Amino acid sequence: xxxxxxxPPRVLTVAGSDSGGGAGIQADLKTMLALGTHGMSxxxxxxxxxxxxxxxxxELPADAVRAQYRSVVDDIxxxxxxxxxxxxxxxxxxxxxxxxxxxAPVVVDPVGVSKHGDALLAAEAxxxxxxxxxxxxxxxxxxxxEVAQLTGVTVTDETGMRxxxxxxxxxxxxxxxxxxxxxxxxxxxxxxDGDEEHWLRAPRLDNRHTHGTGCTLASAIAxxxxxxxxxxxxxxxxxxxxxxxxxxxxxLGGGIGPVDHGWRARTAR
Length: 269
Description:
By secondary structure, the protein is α/β, with parallel strands linked by helices. The chain has a single domain (10-263), classed as UDP-N-acetylmuramoyl-L-alanine:D-glutamate ligase (3-Layer(aba) Sandwich). Helices cover 38% and strands 20% of the residues. Helix 2 packs parallel to helix 3, helix 3 (89-100) packs parallel to helix 4 (126-133) and helix 7 packs antiparallel against helix 8 (231-247). The radius of gyration is 17 Å and the shape is globular. The protein starts with 9 loop residues before the first strand and ends with a helix.
């Protein structure tokens, strides 16, 4: 009689759906599978979305989000949680309350706009992100547009990334990754807890097909934390995985294509 298969680390994503499959819940679950974890999901919104942009978005009721979360956590359990699109103050408050009572590491991707510039977070929800969601985060992963939304700081160089990190940390997350992908030159991110500082650098790749990078990075960090890695190790490994996924990104539709979440499996053949 064969022994039961080992249970992989369990990671939960709380985010919106991307019907085009490049970002959101779909990107999160692909990343979790690629990194050897069991991905689970709480859907917060449905979007009509493709390579050209977001054509529509419909938020789920808070009761539906709460019920999904309780179903997963109370029965299956989680070893890390990642949050993405939480479009309204009500959803942010609901999810923050659930996370605070869970006790697992939390990666907060404070999604504000899509790759195409479409708003995915109501302006009135920003204060809830600052006061409710970021304080329960183990790691927050804002890009430079989200930094500007949350802090008013416009980042143009690495010194500005330090200032932005201090502003975000003041809201309460234990660590922050300031993603500098919108700056010219190499792709540089700053990971810091206010004491330690880690600069993560990678060459800028000549590939415009980068849809889903933010979701993918946050999910990859959550996978590392679920495996028991410390934050710097989880973030370094996630950066390596995302860099490979960007390098392998492919054209899809008439606009910006997705990164390739399965790049490691394909290059291993």
